[in-house]
Design goal:
Main location: membrane
Largest sheet: 5 strands, mixed
Distance between the termini: 40 Å
GO molecular function: ATP binding; phosphorelay sensor kinase activity
EC number: 2.7.13.3
Protein name: histidine kinase
Structural class: alpha+beta
Number of helices: 7
Number of strands: 7
Bound molecules: adenosine-5'-diphosphate
Subcellular location: Cell membrane
């Protein structure tokens, strides 16, 4: 689009209008570019499992009835890739909504209990040592417990994926807000990547993350949910030392 250039002699009013117009067009263009990038990244991400499914289906067509070992391998691969595609599309649907459109089912929930449950489940599933510490026995917060649980799982899941030692979870209530932080002692994130990890589909290491199964959407979803609760999500990290991700939400929604 063409920006409006302002003639110095124009009136203040006209100058103001032109600036507003240019600003609006910049915002629109920016939004459009973001959408375009999202669609292109999403298609790229969905193509990988689809290609695997397609090639196994081809194998099944040719040899499925005569070679049982191929049948088993193909069905297994098609099944797991379909699950991956389903998860991906679910994540994309969440992100297709603006944070202001996130529908929150608010209820009083005890964050300490939620954190302990999430840690227990993850400990069991991944055989890892996740410790939960809190300065209070209970911390009640008005929140959408399912969505906050999803955030806790995203943060714990990342700590598990990118570290191998114990993981510490700390909960503190200070004034009108509650802080929940997950600390791992793993690979960490460089300074230059620290701001990018919230970007949709961003992965520090494309190849490695593909093995661990992440599409780079976890932290974008976490940030969206936390913002919908009028909270904040921030990361501190040192390469080779580890990472602390903290979520802070107000005790009462306004
Ligand atoms: P993914 O599903 O790939 O983990 P996320 O949005 O949750 O997607 O994270 C984006 C990227 O940020 C990851 O691919 C990883 O490179 C980096 N990252 C996130 N959490 C951590 C962590 N605790 N330690 C090191 N790197 C991390």
């Amino acid at each position: 689009y063409k920006r409006i250039t302002i003639n110095k002699k124009s009136s203040d009013e006209l100058n103001k209008m032109a600036r507003t117009f240019n600003h609006m067009m910049d915002l629109l263009e920016n939004n459009y570019k973001k959408q375009e990038q999202f669609v292109s990244d999403a298609s790229h991400e969905l193509r990988t499992p689809l290609t695997v499914i397609e090639s196994y289906a081809k194998m099944l067509k040719r040899w499925g009835s005569s070679r049982p070992e191929i049948l088993e391998e193909a069905v297994e691969a098609i099944h797991s890739e379909s699950i991956r595609m389903k998860e991906l599309t679910q994540q994309m649907l969440i992100l297709a909504r603006d944070e202001s459109q996130v529908d929150l089912q608010l209820e009083q929930s005890d964050l300490v209990e939620m954190a302990k449950n999430a840690a227990k489940n993850m400990n069991k599933a991944y055989d890892r040592d996740i410790q939960v510490h809190s300065n209070l026995v209970e911390i009640h917060v008005e929140c959408d417990s399912l969505k906050i649980k999803q955030v806790l799982i995203i943060l714990l899941d990342n700590a598990i994926k990118y570290s191998s030692a114990a993981i510490n979870v700390e909960l503190t209530k200070q004034g009108n807000s509650v802080r929940f932080s997950v600390t791992d002692y793993g690979i960490g994130i460089t300074k230059e990547n620290l701001d990018k990890v919230y970007d949709r589909f961003f992965r520090v290491d494309q190849a490695r993350s593909r093995d661990t199964g992440g599409a780079g959407l976890g932290l974008s979803i976490a940030k969206q949910i936390v913002s919908a609760h009028q909270g904040k999500l921030y990361l501190e990290s040192e390469e080779g030392k580890g990472t602390t991700v903290t979520l802070e939400i107000p005790v009462k929604q306004s």
